[in-house]
């Protein structure tokens, strides 16, 4: 039994060692990069469902297999998650011991000067006309700012061990910890955030963030049930779009008002100009302008003289020309009888063009701006299927009702604003004009500031870690064994250097340092009586 | 703001001129590379020069004045190549500036301008490396060897410029609303500089691999390999360029995320461009890790660096042109 236990423990220990090794981290990083690539190459459901549908049509054999593998939602797939979870376990397993090690290093003194300095990657030696003390003083001066220890060695030589660049490790740790923090922040956003889309017509219509039912679509975080949304309201007064002659958009501006907090009680409105790149930020939520289009306005006058006006968004089919399609639906007023109502519902469906061009009688649009609006519509009468229990698109009628003959076309015509169609039963359909609508996106993510904070820590951490070099220098001064009789003391000075991390770029600094300490590189003639101290003076 | 057509035309002319000047520079670089004396001879002369300034170990002969040697033709070609590079870069910069003045905005609002700016960043990065290496106290390679890199950098730069100027060319026009933000200055500038410097790093890594083949077996690539700087020097150049620019690339991605938060309603949404930038970032992180992992330091790390550059280029072209995403305002 103990044997089994030992074997298990050994297995666990080895697994842990393996997982937290640098090599594993490298492999996992690679895997992460490779696993993310399909996310860029294969259409993703979360971004573009229609592209995914097209992929299924184009590759009917391949697509279902890819779908099983999760290739259409890479970033929420199990295998992608398992890679980054492993990577982060490895990361934490790697970081904790390193923190401890770093702490120990920070507490300890720079290491003893090696016996044989000549073996160091960087090494210079010179005999100077100065006493050991003078050499040490000037070396001490030159190495100001380094962590330094002076030691006297067994043979009487004096040496300095100096070390610099501790911030490098700090930067490295900050960077890696901030990565963990960022992951947690992103996960928090997925738990506590939400995002809703709603179309609001810019004719003074309002939208209130009081419940998810007000939205056209709503994506809730895992802990969000929609009951505790931040209360605020917006009102869209006007929507102005400027176009260049080429049809390219120059600017979108929504003239809007909003109220939140105390303003809700007093019913006061604050003005705001909503633009792309300038979201409205209120009480922890952000409101974005994420789309726009046209809403044609129709007034139906029923045979008994009652009127109903419909103003509902139509959907752009072409972004370049803003040709739009949609369906505006009406219930006959004052009809109590269910069966009768289902025979006399109306739908106005077809195309809207902001700048009408006709190819024969077929309407299309020549320009995205509202220069010469027109609609080409079918008027359908019968059962719209609104009570069938099946959801239906607001942009179209239920085609199965048409196929079953329960919804019949009673007119087809092109209309300009002010024109109308008279139906066989005397009903008049009047095309009043057109408004613009804005698609608003409301987003909420309480963790966003944290993610930003960690991102900044990542940048500074990596910047520090990569620009600062961890390096060591040793200086040893020994009285010259053969004193020059004409002169006083001479000293043999050795300088050794070692870059603890990647060596790239350390050589230059070492060269300058030895130039200052040994007087090399300043005056090369052997006659020169360069003293380290004077070399330093010349420099400053 | 209307576009100033005259300035825009001048900008296009400057662009074409800079490509021609770069081609001349490249040919001159290659001229020196091909006709220069092979490594050994030059190195002897250079090391004599270095030793003259080498300090305590040297024993100069007193009273001997070296007769100034006439510089061989190949070296003069190299000097001209550097001069042409500087001239090309100036004209190139003028082309971008004129675009900016013509449109009254930053000159990197579509793929054409972006590609052009990246090339300028790469050329400037090369200029800085050359300048610093020539001035360094401890030179890692002879000036001839160093200049030898120039042609290999100019080659991809010219190809990129050619592609940008033909396939990707876009008329001077104002920015679309999604791009009207000061973040375009910050985010895109950081991305341009990173891409340019990483292009240089990638070229250095490719040459490193070639030089390694030669060093492992001097019979392979004998002529070519012997003219390159040592593998150690090439490796360091690639590493230092990457190390300096990695935080900038990190910053570019973060700035992009901040902008995305304001423009698209979320700071990260795995848009193809975001995804590809992330992949490139992870690959470069892997490169830095490889440099700290036994057994991965040399050749393998260089391959990772090249792979990183491949992802960057893929990100620039394929993602912008082929894949539909939020970044598809290439102006095509
Ligand atoms: C989330 C994934 C990770 C990323 C994006 C990442 C990124 C980086 C980067 C960019 C560097 C270069 C900074 C420098 O050289 O000082 C670095 C260094 C380092 N990383 Fe990571 N890392 C990750 C995970 C890990 C893991 C799992 C380990 C442990 C096995 C680890 C251990 C190290 C070590 C020891 C260094 C210092 C290398 C050196 O001295 O140059 N990292 N990391």
Topology of this structure?
The complex is a heterodimer of chains A (about 550) and B (about 325).
Chain A lengths: L1 H18 L2 H20 L7 H10 L3 H8 L8 H30 L14 E7 L3 H11 L4 E6 L5 E7 L2 H26 L1 E8 L3 E4 L8 E4 L11 E12 L5 E12 L1 H5 L3 E5 L5 E3 L2 E17 L5 E5 L3 E2 L7 E7 L7 H4 L3 E9 L2 E4 L2 E4 L8 E9 L16 H5 L3 E9 L4 E3 L5 E17 L3 H20 L3 E9 L11 E9 L6 H13 L13 H8 L1
Antiparallel strand pairs in A: 1-23, 2-3, 3-22, 4-6, 4-21, 5-7, 7-8, 8-9, 10-11, 11-12, 11-21, 13-14, 14-15, 15-18, 16-17, 18-19, 20-21, 22-23
Chain B lengths: L4 H31 L3 H14 L20 H31 L7 H25 L7 H24 L16 H34 L5 H6 L3 H33 L8 H19 L8 H23 L11
Helix pairs in contact in B: 1-3, 1-5, 3-4, 3-5, 4-5, 4-6, 6-8, 6-10, 8-9, 9-10
The structure holds protoporphyrin IX containing FE.
Protein architecture, described:
The complex is a heterodimer of chains A (540) and B (332). With 540 residues, chain A is α+β, with helices and mostly antiparallel strands. Chain A has four domains: 2-105, no CATH class; 109-165 and 469-518, Kinase associated domain 1, KA1 (TATA-Binding Protein), CATH 3.30.310; 189-292 and 441-456, no CATH class; 295-426, no CATH class. Chain A contains 13 helices and 23 strands. In chain A, the strands form five sheets. In chain A, strands 4, 6, 10, 11, 12, 20 and 21 form a seven-stranded antiparallel β-sheet that branches. Chain A has a five-stranded antiparallel β-sheet with strand order 1-23-22-3-2, with helices on one face. The longest helix of chain A has 30 residues, at 78-107. Chain A is elongated and about 125 Å long. The model of chain A is unreliable at 522-540 (pLDDT under 50). With 332 residues, chain B is an all-alpha fold. Chain B folds into two domains: 1-44 and 72-175, no CATH class; 176-332, no CATH class. Helices cover 72% and strands 0% of the residues of chain B. In chain B, helix 3 (73-103) packs parallel to helix 5 (143-166), helix 4 (111-135) packs across helix 6 and helix 8 (231-263) runs antiparallel to helix 9. Chains A and B meet through helix 2, strand 1, strand 8, strand 11 and helix 11 of A and helix 8 and helix 9 of B. Bound molecules: protoporphyrin IX containing FE. Protoporphyrin IX containing FE sits between chains A (20, 22, 25, 29, 87, 90-91, 94, 172, 176, 179, 462, 465-466, 501) and B (285, 288-289, 292). Chain B: It is found in: Membrane. Chain B: Residues 123-327 form the Cytochrome c assembly protein domain. Chain B: The chain crosses the membrane at residues 13-35, 77-102, 114-131, 152-170, 182-210, 237-260, 272-290, 302-326.
